[in-house]
Structure formats: structure tokens, C-alpha cells
Description:
By secondary structure, the chain is α/β, with parallel strands linked by helices. The chain has nine helices and ten strands.
Amino acid sequence: MSPLPTVPRIAxxxxxxxxxxxxxxxxxxxxxxxxxxxLLARWRRGDRLVVLxxxxxxxxxxxxxxxxxxxxxxxxxxxxxxxxxHFLRGAQEEIWHKAxxxxxxxxxxxxxxxxxxxxxxxVIAAYGGSPDEGRIACRGGPTTLARWTGGLxxxxxxxxxxxxxxxxxxxxxxxxxxxxxxxxAGVEASRPLDEQADAFWWNGQGDAALExxxxxxxxxxxxxLARLVRxxxxxxxxxxxxxxxxxxxxxRPALVALTHDGTLLERIES
Length: 270
């Protein structure tokens, strides 16, 4: 088996073209099909794409959602092998990553039950696995549980490109010499960009609270930041597209086009 490609923790987008940011899909394959079609109709040579994590989820068929995104990447690279197409880790991908290593958890049944209630059940089912068998395996001990998680990895591997994609996700993306930062859920404003941990996908602040935190932590290096774009946010009803913090997916998955300094050019709702 050939080694997996090296993926930077933070992807650096090349100059030129527009930056397209695809918000959280949460497994919604119907929305994915709509937005993929809209993007292909608008794509121009030199454009860049960042998929803002949370591709998996319980709002449709998450396995088909990944199939659509992989097909999109192939289409875009066919137009220009040098174009930037980056996929970021979101909370749902982190949950799936942890599920495949559940045998190493201290309290696997409790961890599994939490993850099942937060979208994992739909992902397991989409790959042909059984959440109930997972709960039984948790009671059977580490060896039994390892066999179950190994079965999940095999099911994932049976879908061409899924394992490779999910094992090579970037944590965030940056454009315009740091004026535009893109992540799944935000940042921890008290830390510099290069010292972020899992706040890229677990941030729970609303847009206004996160924007205030960024303004109050300029010493962490955020004074250059013009726009933070994230795939999903905590608070509903925050719809200010002119704000410094821009949440792409609100009630429905969405796609936005931006300049490299974060100016919003177009918003497309599914």
C-alpha cells in the first residue's frame, strides 16, 4: 500500500481566483448534490475550494455525501491539477476518528453512547455497520471491541477514497497572508493560529461572542485577521454576512465565494 500523502496541519491557499467555502453538510447528501452542482457551474480556473468539515452527520446519507465530495474533487482537479482543494476536520470527523479507536477508551460504552447521540449512529449505519453490535462489543472487552472497530474500518475502506480522505484532513486553512482564516467551527482566540488545538472543530461560541474574543486578544496575532469563516456555529439567528466572523451553514448547508481578504462575493443556500 502506498503511503498516505502528507497534509499540512494548516493549509495555505495560493494567490489568485476566488476562495469557495463549503459549510457543514452533516451528512445531507441532497444538499451536497445541490451545492456541488452550483459550484461546478460557477467554477473558474484559479479558484480555490475549502470544505469546512462536518461532512459526516445524521441529516441524510453521509457515505453518499463523501462520494459526492470525492467526485467534486476529481472534477476540479481535472480542470487544473495545481488548484487548491482542501478538506478540513470537523467535530463529526473527529467523532468518527475516535469511534474507530474506541477499544482504547477508558469507558468505551459511555463514550459510544455519547457519540451515537451526536451523529455517529447514522454514519455507522451508512457504512453498513450496527450501533447495537458496537454496544454489545463494548461489554465484551477490548479484544471484542477491536474486532468491531476493525470491521468498521473495513466497511469504510470498501467505499473508494473514503479512508484516504478522512485520514488526510487539514485542521484549518489560511489565505491572503493570514487575513482570511477558515475552520470547521472557529478558533480559541487566546491562542495564536499555530497553537490551536481542537478549537478548530469544537468551538462553541456564537458569532458575536467569538468576534468579541478575537478583538480582545490581538496580542495572540489576530490583528491581521479580516475574516474568520467557519462551517457551522453555535447560535442560531446570527445572520450578519458583513461581520468579522462568518458562519456559512446556518439553518441549511451553504456555499460562499470570497476574496482572499474575506470579502463575501456570493452566498448559495441548499
